[in-house]
Amino acid sequence: MINKINCIAWLFFTITMQSQKLEFSSIFIPAELKENANSVVRTQDINITINSSKDYVITTKKVITVFNENGLRNIDAYEYYDASNKIIELEAIILNSFGNEIKKIKKKEFKDHSVADGFSVFTDNRIIRLDYTPIEYPFTVVYTSKINSSNTAFIPGWYPIDDLFESVEKSSYSITYPSDVGFKFKTYNFEDKNIIQKQSGNTLTFNANQLIAEKSEEYSVSYLQRMPYVVFGLEQFSLEGISGNATSWKDFGAWMYTSFLSNNDQISIETQSKIKELIGSETDPVKKAKIVYKFMQDKTRYVSIQMGIGGWKPMLSSDVDRLGYGDCKALSNYTRSLLKSVGIDSYYTVIYGGDDKRSLYPDFVSMQGNHVILAIPNQKGYYFLECTSQKSPFGYQGDFTDDRFALVVKPDGGELVRTNQYETHKNTQISNGSYTIDNQGNLLGKINIVSKGIQYDNVFSLTDKSKQDVDEYYKSHFRWVNNLKLLKYKFIDNRDDVSFTEELELDAANYVNISGASMMLTLNVFNQNNIIPQRYRNRKYNFEIDRGFLDMDEVEIAISEQFNIDAKPENVSFESKFGSYSLEFIFKPNNKILYKRKLQINNGVFDKSEYEEYRKFKEQIAKYDNSKLVLSHKK
Question: Which of 1, 88, 367, 494 has the fewest CB atoms within 10 Å, measured from its CB?
Fold first, then answer.
């Protein structure tokens, strides 16, 4: 009898162990989840317990099967930590394709290093991450972690789809909170997604199942506009031991001013005297501000500060004044202090920096942003100053901080404002030039290019490049010109007018191949827009042209009179909601041609059904930018 019981127990144990193995075997992943996938999240469970406004614990278990090398980046087995964020548990188990364990990796075997980025002079932030080189594909990682944090200003959000080309079998998020902390959350892009939300007492849960891998699509609207996610926050929170209030943007801004900026505007008597000497008798506030901004740029340099409260609170203005360096917070606050010393108001402004135009959430008050700039009020709104750049013109933002919501921090509270948008017709590139084609088919040309608006942002850093880097830049920029050689160049950076001028002389041997009876001359040498968007049979998402621009080119062309012009391209003009294009050729005696081109691309978000129309619009532009003359030798 005992033997029978032992046999049954052994059989039950064996079946249980086999089922656990089979659970994470890659063999049983549904075919639809493997399609377009470099990896599949088998299960992800995130559990957060908020104990108070000063303490929470997050426990994570993520099981992910990786199919190929591209899927390695989706494992995300890492944690950041510092004095306020402590790692309690950390482990990874590697399974083979059958679900059998092949390696167990303890916390001490993870790779631990500083997050210093090369610009940081003070940082106590560290990262610990899984460092595993696979011996076969597919394989599965079972990753578990437990973190305790006192910084409740940042409650981790839920992003069930956090990587492209990754399917999700199951994902869950559970958060439990006390009643007295002002817990809040907001969901985004849940439509048409298999997500269930439940509330039970003070516990909120989200569950997602069978999410198919997302492919990349050109011109897609940003991740935050198309993927499902949830953000969380507390109205009563703690940041590095400082209690905060996030009931409204006004209250939040008042807390930030009191906690971070109040009484932090001291600069030396010597610096005050120098500023007043530079300003002299100038009374115009804008001109005075420009002088102060230039002084700050000449005196300081950017470094990163990521240490404790120093990761959020600017270092003392007096220290920046003495040391000559600081991060975005410190340099913006230092500039504020300099301006205050000559009677000009300005405001510390929190923003998301990056070319994707990410905004602070207008309807969700919380600790947000990754960058700080400075706002100076004017009659139409604000001048925004980028204080980390030693070359950026006064009031110029470029694509790093343009057209997005930011928090202007004032003594009496915060104000959410949208930064300046660079309108299409102001993002200009005006080109005037000439080139000759000699009887050997060689090209010799000159071009003067003036860029403004967002297009200024593309080129003004050229002044800092070496001769070799400049050569490489133009070989890439004029990539359609074989054998390009840059003979001379001169750059003029007009920071008052916010315009950048490129004066170039170049040649290209054998630009026209004269080996045959008929020869082709591509007329557009200096500004081809020849990238055609990818075709999609079934596009999934709307698309966006995030910034519009206007190009106008006028080029005089002289072709050796030893050539006949046998065929000429026609003038063309067309227009759509996406922009307009015109091309005109004026043929003159003695093989001379005036080439005139105008291209405007409009910004906007467009329905996915219009994508093919846009693709054909760009295809037409590429076609006509490749317009050719047919030449032959005179007999």
Answer: 1
